[in-house]
Amino acid sequence: MKIMLVGATGSLGRVTRRELLTTTDAQLVLVSRHAANLTTDDARERALNINVLDGVVLANALIGVEAVFVALSGDLTAMARSIVMAMTAAGVSRLVFISSMGIYNEIPASVGARGNLAHNPMLGPYREAADIVAASGLNYTVIRPGWFDNGSDDYVVTRECEPFGGHDVSRRAIARLAVAALTDAQLYSHESVGINRP
Questions:
Q1: Are 20 and 71 in contact (CB under 8 A)?
Q2: pLDDT tens column, 57-114
Q3: Residues 6+ apart with CB under 8 A from 24
Q4: CA atoms in the 13 A half-sphere facing the CB of 54
Q5: Are residues 87 and 93 in contact, defined by beta-carbon separation less than 8 angstroms?
Q6: Looking at the DSSP assignment, which residues form a beta bridge with residue 158?
Q7: Which residues contact 16 (CB under 8 A, 6 or more apart)?
Q8: Domain that holds residue 20
Q9: Half-sphere exposure of 154 (CA within 13 A, CB side)
Q10: Could you report the per-residue pLDDT of 119-149, keeping only the tens digit for each?
Q11: Which helix (H) or strand (E) holds 65?
């Protein structure tokens, strides 16, 4: 299986890459604006310096890819549009996209309701990007993590219509969920799921 990691040099991209290398035999395409700085396993990895807003270059890089993981910051709305268009053009369907807790105002008061979009306009682009992904026609899974750290890797998953379960989650837990979804196209297919430490 060939998987593209978009945002491969970010904190979630690095941990997800490591999880894929140690738990699967997948071939990896590592995409970042700083991919040239990566030390790669030439037998399994290819690193590409790509600006994801360049849809033509991204679509060409997607040839032969079966699943795409995205963990980015910046202009998420434009990035999500470009990624969806490139994947559609390349005929790649499976997308696992990292967003944020709170985009559906699903954080209850017990966890910290001020972290919801209704109180935190900084989440607007995360919601817009998730909406673009959900309307894309792709086989998507949006993952909405709590604040990530390097603590316990235990995690629970909540569905879009359920209250968010907790404030924190480890990067490795997010990576494990992402890898499970990347390697099983039916797992949380066409869903937006929250992940937090129990």
A1: no
A2: 999 999 999 999 999 999 999 999 999 999 999 999 999 999 999 999 999 998 889 9
A3: 1, 179, 183
A4: 11
A5: yes
A6: 194
A7: 5, 69, 71, 174, 175, 178, 179
A8: 2-196
A9: 5
A10: 999 999 999 999 999 999 999 999 999 999 9
A11: none
Q: Which amino acid is at 29?
A: V
What is the separation of C-alpha 164 from the centre of its chain, rounded to a whole number of angstroms? 18
Q: Is 152 helix (H, G, I), strand (E, B) or coil?
A: coil
Strands in the chain per DSSP E: 2-6, 27-32, 45-49, 67-70, 94-98, 139-145, 147-149, 156-159, 168-170, 191-196
Name the DSSP letter for residue 161.
Answer: T
Alpha helices of 32-170 — where are they, by DSSP H? 55-61, 76-90, 124-134
Strand, coil or helix: 123: helix
Antiparallel, parallel or unpaired: β 191-196 and 156-159: antiparallel
Beta bridge partners of 98: 143
Give the residue among 176, 177, 172, 171 at the shortest CA–CA distance from 194: 177
Domain count, the chain: 1
Helix (H, G, I), strand (E, B) or coil at 173: helix
Q: What is the CATH number of the domain that holds 12?
A: 3.40.50.720
Residue in the block written with tokens 């035999």: 25
Beta bridge partners of 168: 147
The tokens for 25 are: 């035999």
